[in-house]
Specification:
single chain; 202 residues; mainly beta; Jelly Rolls; 8-stranded antiparallel beta sheet; 7-stranded antiparallel beta sheet; 1 helix
Length: 202
């Protein structure tokens, strides 16, 4: 249970990462990923990397620069342009549904204009899920200049698209539906220089 705790990725650039273990019974037709990050990086960095043997960017939440987030599904991506952060925690939720190809992006509890991506695609279930690095091969192939440095918390993965009120609940750290990956019952393994510490502030 990592409630009120964070992963601190201390080095920049970094070769460290955290492996997340999820029980996925079947491929994903829909998903929602949520997490909170706190960093002063201005270079590209990976926030959440979900790779299968067939596709290294099966699901990837990536920040190429301070004013952009990218969501990859099955190797294709859409870009969400944001205002540059004010040096504070940023809470991101992004969801995707195969039937419509609609990708949603929420930053700090507010929705951005929806975009279309990979309609009819299915996300594979046999996955390597990592925080802190971007996979260019299954479970590896890292470029340290895409590594994350800073603090990560409140990481969740659902096999459904969350409703707007649940998206807002995730931002406010309220009660959430059962998840494939949940911060309060996370099965993880730290590789390299990552430290679990109490959160310094709300």
């Amino acid at each position: 249970d990592l409630y009120r705790k964070v992963f601190v990725f201390r080095n920049d650039p970094s070769d460290a990462y955290v492996v997340l273990r999820a029980k996925l019974e079947q491929p994903l037709q829909n998903f929602t990923v949520c997490l909170r990050s706190y960093t002063d990086l201005t270079r590209p960095h990976s926030l959440f990397s979900y790779a299968t043997k067939a596709q290294d960017n099966e699901i990837l939440l990536f920040k190429p620069k301070p004013s952009e987030y990218r969501l990859y599904v099955g190797g294709k991506f859409v870009t969400f342009r944001v205002s540059e952060g004010r040096g504070d925690w940023e809470h991101v939720c992004t969801s995707w549904e195969s039937a419509t190809g609609i990708a949603e992006f929420w930053l700090n509890g507010k929705p951005w204009p929806r975009k279309g991506l990979q309609r009819g695609y299915t996300v594979g279930a046999e996955a390597a899920i990592l925080l802190g690095q971007e996979q260019d091969a299954f479970g590896g192939g890292f470029d340290v200049y895409n590594s994350f440095s800073g603090e990560l918390a409140d990481v969740y993965l659902w096999d459904v698209g969350l409703s707007p009120d649940k998206m807002r609940a995730a931002y406010q750290s309220l009660r959430l539906p059962p998840a494939i990956l949940a911060w309060k019952s996370l099965s993880y393994e730290v590789k390299g220089d990552v430290v679990v510490k109490p959160r310094l502030r709300e």
